[in-house]
Amino acid sequence: MKNDTLQLLDFVTRELSKAGFTIAPDTNRVAGLDFLITAPTGKTSELQLRSIQVEDEENIKIQKLDYGQVAGHRFIGLVTVIEDNPRAFYIIPSATFTTADNTIFFEHPMNMMPHLSHWEIKVFTAAIPKLAQYEISNFYKV
């Protein structure tokens, strides 16, 4: 994807602004946090932004050490990219991974080597209806 970071940020910013949200980079460099998003109500949430090229990749992995704490105000922002263009934006609550469904969301604890522990999101055709509940348009209602 050409200028992938800028293109992703533009896409995410547009999607969030449609609902009146604002997005700002994490200036404190907190582990696992890329952005702060603020709702029209003033409520602020933390977002780690990830993307997946659906033609080339089947899953993404999120290192637990890199993500930090699971909390109600922390989210994974997943952008699906098709033919070098961002197509869909999902906001997935971090708590989703602690109750992984082992179909789309997986938790891989590595007790002997915790630095290898990670979560996984699988993206495939049959997963789209389940992922749809996390589309940005549904986030406004949360």
How would you explain this protein's 3D organization?
The chain has 142 residues and is α+β, with helices and mostly antiparallel strands. The chain contains 5 helices and 8 strands; from the N terminus they run H-E-E-E-E-H-E-E-H-E-E-H-H. Strand 5 and strand 6 form a beta hairpin. It is globular and about 45 Å long.
Low-confidence stretches: none
What is the molecular shape?
globular
Distance between the termini: 31 Å
Radius of gyration: 15 Å
Number of E-type strands: 8
Strand content: 35-45%
Task: Offer a few descriptive terms.
alpha+beta, 8 strands, globular, 142 residues, 5 helices, three-stranded antiparallel β-sheet, five-stranded mixed β-sheet
Summarize the structure.
The chain has helices at 4-18, 64-67, 95-98, 128-131, 136-139, and strands at residues 22-25, 35-38, 44-53, 59-63, 74-82, 85-93, 105-108, 118-122. The protein is an alpha+beta fold and 142 residues long. The longest helix has 15 residues, at 4-18.
